[in-house]
Write a structure and sequence with these properties.
The chain is an alpha+beta fold. The chain has one domain: 2-Layer Sandwich (Alpha-Beta Plaits). It is 35% helix and 25% strand. A five-stranded antiparallel sheet has the order 4-1-3-2-5.
Length: 105
């Protein structure tokens, strides 16, 4: 059963462009590894510059497989160079009834 993920990427100083380049290929790389559903990512930005991605994993098993997949591990290493992963609960927008973000895609 598909699992929807929401992740926050807070870019390091001066690394926003590099982060956006990684995000552009994120879903495709996971798809090539047969880990995501057909649901394409929604990518948006909060007022503090955090980039949020919403996408669908194929299943809980796919999430677990990602943690031992060498392609995914390499991709995540690249993310760790340009951003920190933060819970969306840390974003000001998440405290509002209708959270609004600026669309990127």
């Amino acid at each position: 059963m598909e699992r929807i993920a929401i992740v926050g990427y807070k870019p390091f100083q001066g690394k926003e462009t590099e982060l956006l380049e990684l995000i552009k290929t994120h879903w495709q790389e996971l798809n090539e590894e047969n880990l995501v559903s057909e649901r394409k990512s929604i990518i948006m930005q909060s007022t503090n510059g955090t980039i949020i991605e919403v996408f669908g994993w194929k299943s809980k098993e796919a999430i677990e497989l990602a943690h031992s997949n060498p392609v995914v591990q390499k991709m995540w290493t690249e993310y760790f160079k340009v951003c920190e992963f933060i819970p969306i609960s840390e974003l000001e927008e998440s405290s509002k009834m209708f959270s609004e973000f600026t669309p990127i895609n």
